Amino acid sequence: MADARLEAIARHCRVQIIRMLTHAGSGHPGGSLSVIDILTALYFGRLRYDAKRPDWPDRDRVVLSKGHTVPALYAVMARAGFFPESQLVTLRKLGSPLQGHPDRSALPGIEAATGSLGQGLSISLGLALGLKLGASRARVYCILGDGETQEGQVWEAAMAGRSSASPTVRSTTSA
Asked: What is d(CA 33, CA 64) in angstroms, rounded to the nearest whole number?
């Protein structure tokens, strides 16, 4: 990342990831750390959203297909103002909205409950198609893990996304 501001945010979020996982006593540090630059660039350089109105209809959507790396998403969302950073240490605690996989019913700003690898691209395609049918200008971003790209469902979603009637979904892969 060339922008010093983005680098500083990503560095801060890395510290928060390690802090969260240490307090939780479990989690996936490698995957969470590998995706933080992508999430930082999206949330602080590309996405259209309002952290105070996470259900704003014209917001861009992010689907973290590799749901086990959600501590990275929580760190970025807290930094963006979706919820207080002090809440990050409640990761995986009973009653906390910050669970080990994204839960859209527990935390406003999460677009999809993910964790079953391979489903994120299909979810993203469905979201994008619904937005297109509603004439929305919102964009959908999907972040896949490198291993899950071997799932048949990812291939099927990618093939469905090729059709001219399908909307554009921007996707990226991280280790």
From this structure: 14
pLDDT at 136: 93
Q: Which domain holds residue 8?
A: 4-174
Look at the chain and report how many structural domains it folds into. Answer: 1
Q: CATH code at 123?
A: 3.40.50.970
HEC profile for the chain? CCCHHHHHHHHHHHHHHHHHHHHHCCCCHHHHHHHHHHHHHHHHHCCCCCCCCCCCCCCCEEEECCHHHHHHHHHHHHHHCCCCHHHHHHCCCCCCCCCCCCCCCCCCCCCCCCCCCCCHHHHHHHHHHHHHHCCCCCCEEEEEECHHHHCHHHHHHHHHHCCCCCCCCEEEEEC
- The average pLDDT across 16-27 equals 96
- Show Cβ contacts of residue 12 under 8 Å, excluding neighbours closer than 6 positions: 79
Q: Is the pTM of this model over 0.90?
A: yes
> Please, are residues 113 and 147 in contact by the beta-carbon 8 Å criterion?
no
The number of beta carbons lying within 10 Å of the beta carbon of residue 148 is 19
Q: What is the pLDDT of residue 161?
A: 80
* Residue 115, pLDDT score: 83
